[in-house]
Write a sequence for this structure.
C-alpha cells in the first residue's frame, strides 16, 4: 500500500511540474518585457524613480522546518544555529506586485548558507538570475545581504537596503531614515508572499516529516506556481497609492526633522519625569 501511495504522489508531482510549474514559475516562464508590464508596480517605479525599461524585485530567504534526521550529515547540514531547529531555505525572488518570479534552492541551514552567501552563488551563474535581469534593475534586500553588496554592484544592479547604523551614531539622519522607509514600503511584499504560501499550504507551516525531504523542493515550487496561477496580486496600483507615493516623494527631499530638533533643543531625552 505504501509503495502504491508513493507511486501516485510521484506521478502527480511530475504532472504538476510539467503542467503548472513550467508555465507559472521560473526565469524562463515569462518574457522580461511581460514581467515588467504585468508584475512591476507603478508605485515602485515612481517611488524609486526607475526607468520604464527596468524592473524591481525583492529577495529574501524563508524557512521550511523539517524533522531531525537520523542521518548525522543531513542532520548537521540542516541544523540552524540561528533558529536552533532543523530547516532548509528557499530563496524567494518576488515582484513588486507579489508575483513569484522564481525560487532558488533548497539550501541547507549551515553557516555557509546565509542570505548573502546564497545570493553570491546566484550571481556567479551566467544563467538564471543574471540572464533575466539587466543593469539598472533594482534589487530590494534586508540587512542580512549586506556582505554581498559589492558583488551586486559589480553587476551594475541597484541595491536598495535599509540604512546601516554607524557604531558611533545613536540614530539615523533624516535622509537615512527616509531611505530605509522607502525600502520598507516595498520589501514587505516578500513577507506577505511567504505568509500566503504557509497560510494556504499548511504542509509548509508545520514541521515537515524528514521522509519528504527529497520531494520538498518540488512540492514548494508547485505551491508557488499555484499561487501565481490562482491568487490575485498582493499589491495593485490605484489612485490612493498614487497619492501616497506622491506624498512620500515630497517628504523624501526634507533634510530636517522638526521633532528631532525640538527634542535636542529642549534636551528632552535627558529629562526624567516621575509618574504619579
Amino acid at each position: 500500500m505504501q509503495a502504491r501511495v508513493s507511486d501516485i504522489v510521484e506521478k502527480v508531482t511530475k504532472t504538476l511540474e510539467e503542467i503548472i510549474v513550467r508555465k507559472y514559475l521560473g526565469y524562463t516562464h515569462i518574457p522580461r518585457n511581460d514581467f515588467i508590464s504585468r508584475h512591476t508596480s507603478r508605485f515602485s517605479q515612481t517611488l524609486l524613480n526607475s526607468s520604464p525599461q527596468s524592473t524591481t524585485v525583492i529577495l529574501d530567504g524563508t524557512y521550511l522546518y523539517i524533522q531531525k534526521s537520523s542521518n548525522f550529515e543531513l542532520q548537521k547540514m540542516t541544523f540552524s544555529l540561528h533558529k536552533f531547529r532543523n530547516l532548509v531555505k528557499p530563496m524567494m525572488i518576488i515582484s513588486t506586485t507579489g508575483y513569484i518570479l522564481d525560487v532558488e534552492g533548497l539550501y541547507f541551514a549551515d553557516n555557509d548558507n546565509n542570505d548573502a552567501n546564497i545570493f553570491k552563488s546566484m550571481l556567479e551563474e551566467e544563467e538564471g538570475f543574471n540572464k533575466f535581469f539587466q543593469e539598472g534593475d533594482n534589487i530590494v534586500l534586508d540587512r542580512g545581504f549586506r556582505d554581498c553588496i559589492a558583488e551586486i554592484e559589480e553587476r551594475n544592479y541597484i541595491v536598495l537596503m535599509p540604512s546601516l547604523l554607524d557604531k558611533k551614531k545613536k540614530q539615523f539622519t533624516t535622509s537615512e531614515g527616509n531611505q530605509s522607509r522607502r525600502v520598507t514600503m516595498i520589501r514587505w511584499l516578500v513577507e506577505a508572499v511567504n505568509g500566503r504560501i504557509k497560510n494556504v499550504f499548511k504542509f509548509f507551516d508545520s514541521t515537515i516529516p524528514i521522509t519528504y525531504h527529497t520531494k520538498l523542493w518540488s512540492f514548494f515550487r508547485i505551491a508557488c506556481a499555484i499561487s501565481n496561477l490562482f491568487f490575485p496580486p498582493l499589491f495593485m496600483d490605484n489612485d490612493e497609492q498614487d497619492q501616497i507615493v506622491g506624498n512620500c516623494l515630497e517628504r523624501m527631499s526634507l533634510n530636517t526633522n522638526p521633532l528631532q530638533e525640538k527634542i535636542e533643543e529642549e534636551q528632552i531625552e535627558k529629562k526624567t519625569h516621575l509618574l504619579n
Observations:
- The radius of gyration is 22 Å.
- Residues 174-200 form the longest helix (27 residues).
